[in-house]
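User: Can you write out an input/output pair for a complex, sequences first and structure second?

Assistant: Here is one pair. Inputs:
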Amino acid sequence: MDGKVIVVTSGKGGVGKTTVTAAIGAAMAMQGKRVAVVDMDIGLRNLDVVMGLENRIVFNIVDVIQGKCKIKQAAVKDRRIDNLFLIPASQSHEKNVIRPENMIWLAGKLRKEFDFTFLDCPAGIEQGFKNSIAAADEAIVVCTPEVSSVRDADRVIGLLYARSIKPRLIINRIVPKMVENGDMLSHEDVLDVLSVDLLGLVVMDDKVVVSTNTGTPLVMQKDSAAGSAFQRIGLRLDGHPDLPIENPMGQKGFWKKLGAKFSRKN
Amino acid sequence: MTFNAILKKLFNKTDTKDVAKKRLKFALIYDKLEVSDDLLKNLQQDLVEVISRYFEIDRDAINLDIRRSEDSSALVFNTPIVSARHCRESTA
């Protein structure tokens, strides 16, 4: 059976697409799936450093498309997790060197080799985005609970629907304390504004920076709240679509209970 | 809800997230309503063509615009009518 190609996109930069791609890819490989993660940001590659594989790159995606090597030669095997492979971006080419038809061809090959392929889309809605969605079966849209990010997510969701690709949303970097204080959009607020299904909620977690520092997979970090959220997202993507989405708001303490009584909205 | 949040409620302060949500909703509505000058020009041409079948209008004084207020948007088409066509035809 053919595998699935899933694009990870956001419109706005810096909301955590690369982190999400690396973490979900690692989570699903640990669940026993054969997984490829592809860096689509030609000229500005980053997925390799996030995964700690930057020293092992020989060929890249442009080499595959130009026929200079096979997919197997370009795919870098993860050091720690079996069945996880990275296809790096080229650092030296122009982003226009890849066309949507090249990606459709590549995706056809990847579906034969891997159960799941995640395309880490560059920010924006230009060539890199067009290349990524040309090849995708499904889409994950990442946003943070901020006005700018939600607006861009709305734009991208519209573009995906126009291509008949059904998007699902991950809300990243939720700060429960700020949400409680009414200083950050809650996930309900975000979903109220965007018409899209929710795939997962990820809490702001210092461990993300720590794991990027060392290039170790977030899902292997002990007690990482974000890591466990990504593991659950991985399960939701394969075989457990109804796994409940945890509310990152946590337990209610004394003040919170008292506050709930005072609040007119609750 | 934390202690600070309770204080905020007691002093009747608006949550910044509610401001954010409101701004976001309007931004998304406006984004979707954004139309190009070309589209407006084509619409104006079509409107003039249809209206000209029934009225004689002053083509130079036509004004087509999108007006936006807090919670709604309106397409406003303004044209002075010189005379009604069917009247002229019946008297002719």
